[in-house]
Automatic annotation (TrEMBL):
Chain segments annotated as transmembrane: none
GO molecular function: DNA binding; serine-type endopeptidase activity
Organism phylogeny: Bacteria, Candidatus Dojkabacteria
GO BP terms, alphabetized: DNA repair; DNA replication; negative regulation of DNA-templated transcription; proteolysis; SOS response
One Pfam family, short name: LexA_DNA_bind
CDD domains: S24_LexA-like (cd06529)
Domain of life: Bacteria
InterPro entries listed in its UniProt record: LexA, LexA-like, LexA/Signal_pep-like_sf, LexA_DNA-bd_dom, LexA_repressor, Peptidase_S24_LexA, Peptidase_S24_S26A/B/C, WH-like_DNA-bd_sf
Protein name according to UniProt: Repressor LexA
Residue ranges of domain Peptidase S24/S26A/S26B/S26C in the record: 84-208
Matches recorded under NCBIfam families: lexA (TIGR00498)
The keyword DNA damage appears for this protein: yes
């Protein structure tokens, strides 16, 4: 193991172990949030990231993909690929700085992403895409997005755009000499972003998978 746990991290690990003993499976992100009394899923995710970095758990792309690593019998998942988590992206007004962060890796079954390469993951902030679906899964606060870098972008794709050095996730539409990034939201305050030829924008990739409870 790679580090001493805080009291809160010990509690998270205890709850995960207890769920395995009682239910034969790991808790979902929402269940952990309820057990811990944490107001946001992001707070739960931060604890899980810390536990993984310290070597106590392995996370996968499955809905309840938390696997405990024991000293006596370490769990090895050679078939999984590690997708780097490069930070947060706004599903809202693009306010989050687009500089890459190192938040570790999320382990994903290659079959989930059709063995695509050049992938990275982002954690969603905001609600401007909470009605949008990728393969039936909504893009909600705390979701993990698997993004294919440098993918060919077509009308209707959900993209990661960098505008004024801030990342945002929106639905892509091109026409009449303008690109429009559309929200799909329950919140009427979220409005489209209109990009003309003078707007500095870079498209970092196309969202190909949403992991609602990757941890």
């Amino acid at each position: 193991m790679g580090g001493i746990l805080t009291k809160k991290q010990e509690n998270v690990l205890r709850i995960i172990r207890q769920c395995y003993l009682e239910n034969g499976q790991a808790p979902s992100l929402g269940e952990l949030q309820e057990f811990l009394g944490i107001s946001t899923k992001r707070g739960v995710v931060n604890h899980l990231i810390a536990l993984e970095k310290k070597g106590y758990i392995i996370r996968t792309g499955d809905p309840r993909g938390i696997h405990i690593v024991d000293n006596d019998e370490e769990i090895v998942y050679d078939y999984l690929i590690g997708v780097p988590i490069l930070g947060y992206a706004n599903a809202g007004t693009p306010l989050v700085n687009a500089e890459e962060e190192n938040l570790g890796n999320i382990k994903v079954d290659p079959k989930l992403v059709n063995k695509k390469k050049d992938l990275f993951a982002l954690i969603v902030k905001g609600d401007s895409m909470d009605l949008a679906e990728i393969e039936g899964k909504n893009i909600e606060e705390g979701s993990y997005l698997i993004v294919q870098k440098d993918a060919e972008i077509q009308d209707g794709d959900v993209v990661v755009a960098i505008i004024d050095n801030s990342a945002t996730v929106k639905r892509f539409k091109k026409g009449d000499g303008m690109i429009t990034l559309y929200p799909e939201s329950t919140n009427p305050l979220n409005q489209p972003i209109f990009l003309d030829k003078d707007t500095e924008v870079m498209f970092n990739g196309k969202v190909i998978k949403v992991l609602e409870n990757p941890t």
